[in-house]
UniProtKB/TrEMBL annotation:
Coiled coil: none
Domain Tyr recombinase intervals: 194-412
PANTHER family, alphabetized: PHAGE INTEGRASE-RELATED, TYROSINE RECOMBINASE XERC
Keyword Acetylation set for record: no
UniProt protein name: Tyrosine-type recombinase/integrase
Lineage summary: Bacteria, Pseudomonadati, Pseudomonadota, Betaproteobacteria, Neisseriales
SUPFAM superfamilies: DNA breaking-rejoining enzymes (SSF56349)
InterPro entries assigned to the protein according to its UniProt record, in alphabetical order: DNA_brk_join_enz, Integrase-like_cat_sf, Integrase_catalytic, Tyrosine_recombinase_XerCD
GO molecular function, one term: DNA binding
One Pfam family from the record: Phage_integrase
GO annotation terms (biological process): chromosome segregation; DNA integration; DNA recombination
Species annotation: Craterilacuibacter sinensis
Source taxon at top rank: Bacteria
Length: 425
């Protein structure tokens, strides 16, 4: 990244993955590291969450760079940010990190040439007006607020501040927290257009045709890659799992006799060599496997996975084609990228999570066919997805099914009203 800041994940001897924010020299930044250890890791948050927090902190430091703000000096004087600076911070939190890094690089370059930052802003080419989704911007602002509050409280906890400065810093911290809170965007926007949904049955059929190992349109040449990717798509589509859950499945988790697989939670597993360990964010659970999916899985294990010597050194089901090491999250991302780029018949937004939405659409349709009550459907879905029994997450995953049912009812109602009017004429 042009800024020099980056978040690196290190693996401790215990197997724990610990993200660390590095400065421009590649060294861990002291304050962000202590903040992450005490305020995030200390509350038993997952490594992924720590990484998200540190990227938010990185966005804040990029903001300080672009405005040439000495924040430690501000704290020492009892000041933090002006109202205008909070407005600027709010706007920048809506931008991708790569664009913030570019802004930071421009300001640093300008400073090194002793050119005014305002002149650089006037002469610089306008950046693309791309924005992150409101939920991401909101998350950044919340974590930045927490970081600012922590920095201020940490300084107040030490001796050396004059009483007047300490009082001023306490008041300013409260003001900044309230000011940031008032500017946090509402993630639950009324505009639901363009939000992620499942794909149609026709698209599912086309996807299965393309990834069939014998299909002439299969985008992969290597035999192991073809069979592994086909099986991976089947697991995502037929079981509705998250990518992290699929990549965490071990051969020993599958019980052929009972036709079941256990989805475990194994955070910071020392037996997992991947730096970015795939995580199971949901509850552990036992899922049934159909005869067809079980047969495909066993065939892959016996005929393809077993042929890779390195695969014998670990128990993870899905492995890399060349090394035999456990398949990574990046490899799955590449899989879907290749599908989108090489198969024009598939939607541009196809991803593993879209298949999870697709499973939920199919589940809703099947429960409708069975005449299940809404409560029974909710309980069954929550178990299979690994959600809390009281979770309302299903509303996120059933948009397409709900929209189609609403469309069907609306058309029926329109026909009924039109026919009634004709009868009155």
């Amino acid at each position: 990244m042009p800024s020099g800041y980056r978040v690196k994940t290190v693996t401790l001897s215990s197997g724990e993955r610990l993200p660390v924010l590095l400065d421009r020299e590649g060294l861990p930044m002291f304050a962000p590291t202590v903040f992450a250890l005490t305020e995030v890791r200390g509350k038993n948050r997952a490594a992924n969450t720590i990484g998200i927090v540190l990227r938010s902190v990185m966005a804040f430091h990029l903001f300080l760079d672009t405005r040439d703000i000495d924040f430690n000096g501000r704290i020492a004087s009892g000041e933090l940010l002006s109202l205008g600076e909070v407005e600027d911070l709010t706007r920048l939190c809506r931008r991708p990190l790569s664009e913030l890094a570019t802004l930071s690089s421009l300001s640093k370059s300008a400073a090194s040439k002793i050119v005014s930052l305002e002149k650089i802003r006037m002469n610089a080419q306008p950046l693309p007006l791309s924005e992150v989704v409101p939920d991401v911007a909101a998350s950044r602002l919340r974590y930045i607020r927490m970081y600012i509050e922590w920095l201020a409280m940490e300084r107040l906890s030490r001796h050396g501040l004059a009483p007047s400065v300490a009082s001023k810093l306490g008041d300013t911290t409260k003001f900044i927290a309230e000011t940031i809170n008032a500017r946090i965007p509402n993630g639950s926007s009324r505009n639901t257009l363009g939000q992620r949904e499942g794909v149609s049955e026709e698209t599912v059929a086309e996807l299965l045709r393309v990834v069939d190992p014998h299909s002439p349109d299969n985008p992969w040449r290597d035999l192991h890659t073809r069979y592994r990717n086909a099986l991976l798509i089947h697991w995502l589509l037929y079981l509705g799992l998250r990518i992290g859950e699929v990549l965490g499945v071990r051969v020993s988790d599958i019980v052929p006799y009972h036709k079941e697989v256990t989805i475990h939670r194994r955070a910071d597993d020392p037996a997992d060599p991947r730096r970015y360990q795939p995580q199971t964010k949901t509850r552990a659970r036992v899922l049934p496997i159909s005869d067809t999916l079980l047969a495909q899985t066993q065939a892959y294990i016996l005929n393809h996975r077993r042929a890779l010597p390195q695969a014998k050194k670990h128990a993870f089901l899905f492995v890399a084609s060349r090394t035999g090491q456990p398949m990574t999250l990046a490899a799955v991302g590449k899989l879907f990228k290749e599908l989108r780029e090489r198969c024009p018949s598939l939607p541009k937004g196809l991803s593993g999570h879209v298949l999870r939405h697709t499973w939920n659409d199919a589940f809703s349709k099947k429960m409708d066919e069975k005449g299940a009550t809404p409560e029974n459907e909710r309980q069954a879905r929550s178990y299979l997805m690994g959600w809390s029994p009281t979770s309302d997450t299903a509303t996120v995953y059933t948009r397409r099914h709900v929209r189609n049912k609403a469309k069907e009812v609306s058309l029926d109602l329109q026909d009924q009203l039109v026919n009634r009017r004709k009868g009155d004429e």
